[in-house]
Amino acid sequence: MTSAVARSPGPALYPLHPLHAFVLAGIVPLFIGVLLNDYAYWSSYVLQWKNFASWMLIGALVFNGLAWLGSIVSLVRADERMGTPLAYFLLLLATFVLGVINSLIHAKDVWASMPAGLVVSVITVILACAATWIGLASWRIGGAK
Amino acid sequence: MKPVKILSIALVAALLSACGENNNNVDDAAQLGPDPTLPEIQRGLLPTLKIAEPADWDDRQPIVPSNYEITAIATDLNIPRQTLILPNGDILVAEGRGGNAAKLRPKDFIAGYFKRKGNTAVESGDRLTLLRDSDDDGIYETRTVFAENLNAPYGLALINDQLYVANQDAVMQFDYQPGQTTASGLPRKLTDLPSEVNHHWTKSMTASPDGRFLYVGIGSNSNITENGLEVEQNRARVWEIDAKSGAHRPYATGLRNPTALDILPGTDQLWAVINERDELGPRLVPDYLTSVQEGEFYGWPYSYWGQNVDARVKPQQPDLVAAAVTPDYSLGSHKAPLGLAFSTATMGGKFSEGAFIGEHGSWNRSDPAGYKVVFVPFSNGKPDGDPLDFVTGFQGEDGKTRGRPVGVTVDPKGALIVADDLSNTIWRVTPTQ
C-alpha cells in the first residue's frame, strides 16, 4: 500500500477482494462458451455441443453465484459517500436468474431447447459483460472520472 | 440499464407462464382404443414429475375382480421382470437390472436421482429362478436358482429342448429337459444384441409358433435421440432371429421401446406393447398395443401415433414420416406397459379372449397412471372394447405405491402370473370355482 496514490472521490469506488475479482472474471468466458456451443449445436445438430453448453452453463452459474455473494458483501460494506454498488449487484442477480432459466431450457431434450436456449444465451452474455464491466471498473482507483 | 432489466423481467415472465400444465384437460378415457385424442404438444420449463412413493404391502394385497383370487407365490426375489411357463407347469423368472448409459448431461444426474426413488433398491439378480408347484395346490413350494451370472436377463422363450434367454447384450440358449430345476451347463450364445449405451436395456422376446424364429424387441437408446443419432443404429425395432443360426434382420422399425411381445393364439401374428416418448405433456404420447406388421415403420423418433411430427428431432425426415403406420390400440399416455400375454379360455368369463397388459406406471404426469394390470378384450383377432382393470391396488388410496407390475404370463392351467419389480414378488391370479 502506498499512500502516494490519491483517492479521488467517485461514485463507484469499492475495491474488490482478489477472490471476488477472480470469480467475477470467470463468468464472461464461461457464458461466451455457452453461447458458442449453442451456436455450434444450432448450426450442426450435433448433440455433444449442446451437452458442452449445459455443463459450461453449470460452471458459469457457480462463478456467477459466488460473484453475486461477493457483491452482497460489497453492498453491505459500501461507504455511502462513495456510492453503493447496487447496479452491479442487480446485474449479477439478473444474469444468475436468467442463467438458471437457461439451464432448465437446456435440460429439454434435443431441439426442444431451441431457439429459446440460443436467445437466452445471447442475453446472458450481454448481462455478464455489463456486470463484469461495472464490477471491475471499481478497480480504477485514482483513475479519471 | 433500464431496457435490459425490462427485457429480462419480460422474458422471465414469459418463460414461467409456460410452466403450467394445460393439456391435462384431455380425458384419459378419450386416449384409449384405436383412435386416441391427441392434444397439442406442451412442455413448460420443468417436466412434470410424480414419482411413486414405495411402501410395504404389510397385510394388504392387490385387488382382483370378484370370482378371482390373488396370492404371492414367491417373494424376496432380486428384481423379477418377465416369466415363462414351462410345459410341466414350472415357472421361470428372469431377474435383473440393466443399462450402462453414461450420464452425459447435468439433467441425467437429477433425473436419475428422482427415478431411482420410485424403484426397488435391491441388487440385480442377473439370474433365472425356477418355481414349482408339485401337487397343484397353488403353493409353489420348490424354488431353485435355474441359472445365474446372466447379464440382465429379460425375454424368455422355449422352443422344443432349447431355452432362450435374452440378456441385455445377447440371446443365450440352454439345453432344457422337462423337470430340470437347474441348468445342466453354461449357456451358448446364439447372437449378440445391440447393447451400446442400453438406455432402454430390456430385450423382450417371443418365439414364432413354428419354432423357426425368435422375435426380440430392442428399445431406443434415448427418450428422443438426446444421446445422439449414432447410438440409435439398430435400435427401436423388433428383430427376427433364426433360432438355429442366429441370423437376424429387422422385422419392424420405429417402435420406440417394445417391452413385451406375444403371438396371438391361433395365428402367426406378432403383437407388442410399446412405451412411447416423454416430455411432450401429460397426455402425450400414448403408449400402445399393436400388431407388428413386417417391414413397417412406426414413427420413432420422427413422428408419433402415425404421422404426427416430433419437431424435437433434427434433422427431420419427412419421407420416413410419410411412410409411418399408425398403431392399433392406444393404452393411454405414460402408463409404461411392460407385460403382454394373450389369454385362454381357462381364465374364464370376460377375461378369456384378449390381452393382459402389465402397466408399470407413470412418472411424467402429475396424476399417476398405470400401476395395474389391464385386460384388452379381443374378438376376431382384433381389440374390441375398452380395457378392463384386472389387477389394481398397486397404488393405494393413501398415495403410496406397493408394487409395480412388469411381465404378465398366462398359465394354460388357468392363472395369470404377474411379476412385480417393486415389491420383488410374483403374484398369481386364478379364477375361483
Secondary structure layout:
The complex is a heterodimer of chains A (145) and B (433).
Chain A lengths: L17 H27 L2 H31 L8 H21 L9 H22 L8
Helix pairs in contact in A: 1-2, 1-4, 2-3, 3-4
Chain B lengths: L1 H16 L35 E2 L13 E7 L5 E6 L5 E5 L10 H12 L9 E6 L9 E6 L7 E5 L2 E5 L3 E6 L12 E5 L10 E5 L5 E6 L18 E6 L5 E6 L4 E6 L6 E5 L11 E6 L11 E2 L3 E2 L8 H6 L5 E5 L3 E6 L11 E6 L12 E8 L2 E2 L4 E4 L8 E2 L3 E7 L3 E6 L4 E7 L2
Parallel strand pairs in B: 1-26
Antiparallel strand pairs in B: 2-29, 3-4, 4-5, 5-6, 7-8, 8-9, 9-10, 11-12, 12-13, 13-14, 15-16, 16-17, 17-20, 18-19, 21-22, 22-23, 23-24, 23-25, 27-28, 28-29
DSSP helix fraction of chain A = 55-70%
Largest interface, with counts of residues having CB < 8 Å to the other chain, equals: A-B, 30 and 28 residues
* Major sheet characteristics of chain A: none
Number of helices of chain A: 4
Please state the structural category of chain B: mainly beta
- The CATH superfamily of chain B appears as TolB, C-terminal domain
Total individual domains of chain B? 1
Number of domains of chain A: 1
Unreliable spans of chain B:
1-8, 10-21
Gyration radius from CA atoms of chain A, angstroms? 17 Å
Count of DSSP H/I helices of chain B: 3
Shape of chain B: globular
User: In one word, what is the shape of chain A?
Assistant: elongated
| DSSP E strands of chain A, number | 0
Report on this structure:
- The complex is a heterodimer of chains A (145) and B (433).
- Chain A is mainly alpha-helical and 145 residues long.
- Chain A has one domain (36-137).
- In chain A, 70% of the residues lie in helices and 0% in strands.
- Chain A has helices at residues 18-44, 47-77, 86-106, 116-137.
- Residues 1-12 and 141-145 of chain A have low confidence and may be disordered.
- By secondary structure, chain B is mainly beta.
- Chain B has one domain (47-431): TolB, C-terminal domain (Neuraminidase, 6 Propeller), CATH 2.120.10.30.
- Chain B contains three helices and 29 strands.
- Chain B has helices at 2-17, 106-117, 318-323, and strands at 53-54, 68-74, 80-85, 91-95, 127-132, 142-147, 155-159, 162-166, 170-175, 188-192, 203-207, 213-218, 237-242, 248-253, 258-263, 270-274, 286-291, 303-304, 308-309, 329-333, 337-342, 354-359, 372-379, 382-383, 388-391, 400-401, 405-411, 415-420, 425-431.
- In chain B, the strands form eight sheets. In chain B, strands 21, 22, 23, 24 and 25 form a five-stranded antiparallel sheet that branches. In chain B, strands 2-29-28-27 form a four-stranded antiparallel sheet, with no helix packed on it.
- In chain B, strand 13 and strand 14 form a beta hairpin.
- The longest helix of chain B is centred in the N-terminal third of the chain and has 16 residues, at 2-17.
- The radius of gyration of chain B is 21 Å and the shape is globular.
- The chains are: A mainly alpha (145), B mainly beta (433).
- Chain A binds chain B through residues 45-48, 51, 54-55, 58, 87, 90-91, 94, 97-98, 101, 103-105, 107-112, 116, 120, 123, 126-127, 130, and chain B through 1, 4-5, 7-8, 11-12, 15, 43, 45-46, 104-107, 222-228, 279, 311-315.
